[in-house]
Model the fold of this input.
Amino acid sequence: MKRTYVNLPSISARCPFVLTTAYIISVSLFFLAFPAVDIWASQMFYSSDGYFPAAKSPLLQDIRYMKHYLVSWVVGLSLAVLLIKLLLPKLRALVDLRAPLFLISTLIIGPGLVVNALLKNNIGRPRPRHVESFGGSNPFVGVWQSSDYCQTNCSFVSGEASSSIWLVALVFIVPKKWKLPVAIGTIGPALVFSINRVAFGGHFLSDTMISWGVTFFVIWAVYWLLYRKTPSWAQPETLENAFTHAGIWLHAKLNKLFGIGSTQVQQFASMFR
Done:
């Protein structure tokens, strides 16, 4: 009898893609089959006076902007790592340069391009506060159903839920002993930030849940490319050398254009240490 061997690493590598895709499809089918769940979830936060009280809460507004600060800090630190390497090219980078590239690229591709540019600006789903069930003038539109009732920055899918769950990308790059604390410290706030938008009447529950799946798919895809597949250009030493050469070139340009030598650049860079 001929034996069949299963390539376990290959199955393991595909598993997150399969699970994430299954999640997106399952959630989409559920809300397509039971669209009233969206209305019911938003109704929980809607007042009989005809508005969403949470949207006027100073505390919940602060919680919303806390998410913006957290995302900005992660992006700022990622850019700082790259900038310091360029300013001090002969010193080894503070971390594996794939890490800041991973964080920045997943934010741009996921919340930036796929969620905001592609889905939110083209599906055309009105936000809860704009539909008839909650005092608006537009009819309810289900998930993945294109409409002309909203032209830009629409409800499907949630951009803020996407950038909130993007914070979980930190779990992929921290040392093993930090993964659980970072997971707890990012997943919990991501859920709060996301549900906050439902409470504000800014998004339906389905907008939020599908956004999580879409964003995580992007995160895993980029992680697989940089850390599992790792093409030649993304090898740690290759990136290190590329940024070293780029930094040396930058020093030469600064010196030529503005008379800024390496001493002045190092004094400036020391402020980031």
Summary: The CA atoms of residues 4 and 248 lie 54 Å apart. Residues 37-272 form one domain. The two ends are 64 Å apart (CA to CA). DSSP finds ten helices and no strands in the chain.
